[in-house]
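Subject: for your reference before the review

Hello V.,

The reviewers asked for a structural picture of the protein, and I figured it would be easier to keep everything in one thread rather than splitting it across files. Below is the amino acid sequence we used in the manuscript, unchanged from the supplementary table.
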Amino acid sequence: MTTSQLTAAPLANTHRVQLRDLADAARLTAAVPTDLISRLAAAPGLVRPGIAHWDMKTRLPLHPLSIENAYGDARLLRDLAVPGATYAHQLNVDVVVGAETGGIPLAAAVALAADLPFAFVRKPGYVGHEDNEPRVRGASVAGKRVLLVDDAISQGTALEAFANQLRLEGAILVGAFTLVDMRDVADSVTPTALTLPIASVATYLQVLDSTTDLGILQPAIHDLAVDALINHWPDQDPRWSLLAA
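And here is what came back from the structure prediction:
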């Protein structure tokens, strides 16, 4: 598939969350080998069937992605980092910054692949750090063009917080790289997630399609789960019992 074809490809959530062309094109132009999505989806335990709750309130038709399981395969982690390194060079990045905590291993791998300095940014509100905890550790980001790396992006709440932390340190945030872009099932996104150029290995719906092709998800569960994600089933929807069964 050519770059022009990739740029023209629509997001899965085109009719739900309208993303600017800049963000769409940036997400889709990362150089991703055709088999990389399948290798990511095949990571043990990354996708797990079963009804779950996010933050003890939002009902989900599947367990939250265990993306960190993909980090257990050193070769897979290395290969997942290559599109991020390519994207960093496209954006003329000075420093690769990992988002605490899930983005740190991936960001370190991206920095190694791109031969760029590495830093990580603290998640605001984390308990247990020392007094006056630095917002960013590692390479200096002041006045530098930085690429923020995280394991997944959904509505962009965490992305917004990390972006604010970096700007307080004087960084110039030029883009983000993530393994799974979950904006395709989000009912709304933050301003930063709407406008910041974001590249990814796959969307969430692509990962679910791939796990079904691999036999990890049964087709019936896949179809019900995607419907629940896209249409945000209310708690009283009788189809939850089909997923539970």
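For the response letter, the relevant points are probably these. The CA atoms of residues 144 and 171 lie 5 Å apart. The first strand starts at residue 49 and ends at 54.

Happy to draft the paragraph if you're swamped.

O.
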